[in-house]
Write a structure and sequence with these properties.
The chain has 156 residues and is an alpha/beta fold. The chain has a single domain, classed as 3-Layer(aba) Sandwich (Glutaredoxin). The protein contains 4 helices and 7 strands. The protein has helices at 3-22, 37-48, 60-69, 95-104; strands at 27-32, 52-57, 81-84, 87-91, 108-113, 130-136, 141-147. The protein has a 7-stranded mixed beta sheet, sandwiched between helices. The longest helix is centred in the first third of the chain and has 20 residues, at 3-22. The radius of gyration is 15 Å and the shape is globular. Keywords: Signal. This is DUF411 domain-containing protein. Residues 1-22 form the signal peptide.
Length: 156
């Protein structure tokens, strides 16, 4: 089997496993401001992975209050906020990491991709590196996954 075929099969299996796990009925409640195209792109990314997503538009002050009430710090925020099964999802978190979070169930507030990095779900194509951070209950963070992945190595 060629290296290209192996890489294709590994990617297809990864996407399939994400979709199958999310298709179990995980519901994500998203809050954003109206007219944000990248927020809609992230919602579509989650839906494509099998999540059931609702999206409510809020005034910026109300959205910011939701972020702070969830336990996020200002430097951990992005343009939209989601909630799934007791966890917060801030910003352009890849669906695969949401699925991993729900499978591993760490003692944490949730996941964040601070800012709006190019190449993250909803932000278009790019090889710009970014981290998905696990927000711990004390407000500190640790790297949950890094993108883009090295060839053949799953984000850790």
């Amino acid at each position: 089997m060629t290296a290209i075929r192996k890489a294709f099969l590994a990617g297809a299996l990864s996407l399939l496993s994400t979709s199958v796990l999310a298709a179990a009925g995980d519901k994500v409640e998203v809050f954003s401001t109206s007219g944000c195209g990248c927020c809609l792109g992230w919602v579509q990314h989650l839906e494509d992975a099998g999540f059931e997503v609702t999206n409510e538009n809020l005034a910026m002050a109300d959205l910011y209050a939701k972020k702070m009430d969830a336990g996020l710090k200002q430097d951990q925020t992005s343009c939209h906020t989601g909630f799934v099964d007791g966890y917060v999802l801030e910003g352009h978190v890849p669906a695969r990491e949401v699925t991993r979070l729900l499978a591993e169930r760490p003692e944490a507030i949730g996941l964040t991709v601070p800012g709006m990095p190019a190449g993250s779900p909803g932000m278009g194509e790019s090889d710009e590196p970014y981290d998905v951070l696990l927000v711990l209950k004390d407000g500190s963070t640790e790297v949950f996954a890094s993108y883009p992945e090295e060839k053949g190595i799953r984000a850790q």
